[in-house]
Amino acid sequence: MHQEKQFDKYLNLLGVESSSPSFEFLCKIVRAHLLRIPFENVSKLLYKQKGMDNLPSLPAYLNGIEKYNFGGTCYANNYYFNLLLNHLGFKVKLCGADMKNPDVHIINIVTVEGYEYIVDGGYAAPFLKPLPRFLTDDYVINLGSEKFILKPQDKNGLSKLEQYFEGEFKHWYTAKPKPRSIEEFHGVIKDSYADNAMFMNIFRITRFTKKGSLAIRNLQLTKVTDSLTTINELTRSECPAIVENNFLIPAEVVEEALSTIKELKNTFY
Fold first, then answer.
1. Among 17, 91, 180, 197, which residue is least crowded by beta carbons within 10 Å?
2. Where are the domains of the chain?
3. pTM, whole model, 2 decimals?
């Protein structure tokens, strides 16, 4: 009963009413999730300060969304979305994805109306629709200076997703369709809290809007609206107020998170 209430709260935060599993409903809830729940490591930096090295609980995750407009990185965003989709009756499996190292990303693969789709709310990417896995040609998504290309499955049934910025290849992952449990990623999640881990040394928030996106990469704010992209350089002192104004995460919370990073590391991601 307690978990039932948590899922009701989850849906309420998304502004979505429960419905029977269908492709139409999947599209609706995927879009709602991307528009409401950001990709961010503010919460992760604060969890580290509290001595955590694993996922927050579902109640803590939802409380962070409700109270602070948090979201999470791929582990929290995609795992809890997996639980919600499963609760709603979707045929969904949690899957690993390889980047430079194996299994450092997790995604969801949903089968609905006889077709498989990748659902990924944890890549800071504009995947506002389920991504089809039954491709014969490249599936391309453009937003501002970024381009994402999902390739057709290879001979092993793997799906490669490529990210480009201003035409330059920047990042990728290879999604593996084998169903996994969250416990299998415990070591990777723990490692993501290490002092030298990427998300302990950068400041990152991306939120999608109906017409584009807002993104903070360290001390750079990028706004994309339709085809217009604006980039502003920030100072550390002004960053908390700018984040509150644009992302609705309280300035004092942002300031506390930023204070945990002595030197921001340069990374595109």
1. 17
2. 2-259
3. 0.96
